[in-house]
Structure prediction request, 178 residues.
Amino acid sequence: MNVIPLLKKWTSSPMVTTKKICTLASIVVLLASFSLSTEAAPTPAKTTGPAKRQVVFLPFTVEIPGSYAYLRQGLASMLASRLASRADIAAIPQGTATEQMAKALKSGEYASVSQQLRQTGADYLVIGSLTPKGQQFELTSYVFSNSAEQTPKKFQRDVVVIDRAMTAVDELAWDLSS
Prediction:
């Protein structure tokens, strides 16, 4: 915006003082600096770190008496969120491919699971269970790799009372992330 014609017209008025000119000059400088600061600044180049490992989490098998069906998804979700923050992974949403992987696991077709993991772009599959163990419970998790040559890794935690299952999942997440 060209302010010179406005300034000439304004300064020819008998009511113009030095103070008004300084105020106008300050406003023009302020507006000019504001317009420069709001222009699109170049975005800095993103530093690309290592890609997050993609992990499929299947619902836990809960084999304890009582109304604990909510733990199937709850334990898996909590483990996924803990690992996402501690091990820099990304959980892959469940879908028909994960159902097929679950069926393959139940039938012992581990090579098929590895192949399906590769097809979905996942690096790992995590399954788990909460089962009775004497007067206590046992929280177990297996991690399957998309490499057919790697055997699944097993992680376990004892749960003294069912109310401590979430704490055991938190501890299990530390084990898996190390």
In short: The first strand starts at residue 53 and ends at 57. The two ends are 61 Å apart (CA to CA). Strands lie at 53-57, 61-62, 89-92, 124-133, 136-145, 153-159. The helical segments are 4-11, 18-37, 71-86, 96-106, 110-120, 165-177.
